[in-house]
Design brief:
Elements lengths: L1 H6 L4 H24 L8 H30 L13 H9 L10
Helix pairs in contact: 2-3
């Protein structure tokens, strides 16, 4: 569902969530610079886990955005081969539609 939402242009929500996660983590780390003696001890494993999760989230958004851009703008492909080698059938299978003239119905 996440990927489908992103492909439909719903990048704002996941980007906002990733940004908020980064800002929250940064705020905690900056607060520790000034008030570490007043805070609970830093759980380094928890910080590492948060950073890794943020990295995964941002990576997912970027990866889906690239796929979405390709779907939106399209790609140019040349299918070459001998006559009756199955080029039209291949195109129809890839596009999941009857795009090629003379394709099998």
């Amino acid at each position: 569902m996440f990927s489908l939402t992103l492909l439909r242009g719903g990048l704002a929500g996941p980007v906002r969530e990733a940004r908020n996660g980064c800002v929250d983590l940064l705020a905690e780390l900056e607060a520790r610079l000034d008030f570490d003696d007043e805070m609970e001890p830093l759980n380094e494993d928890e910080v590492i886990a948060k950073v890794r999760q943020l990295e995964l989230d941002v990576g997912a958004v970027l990866g889906t955005a690239r796929r979405g851009r390709l779907l939106h703008t399209g790609v140019s492909v040349a299918i070459v081969g001998r006559p009756n080698a199955g080029k039209s059938s291949l195109l129809n299978a890839w596009s999941r539609s009857e795009r090629a003239i003379g394709g099998v119905v």
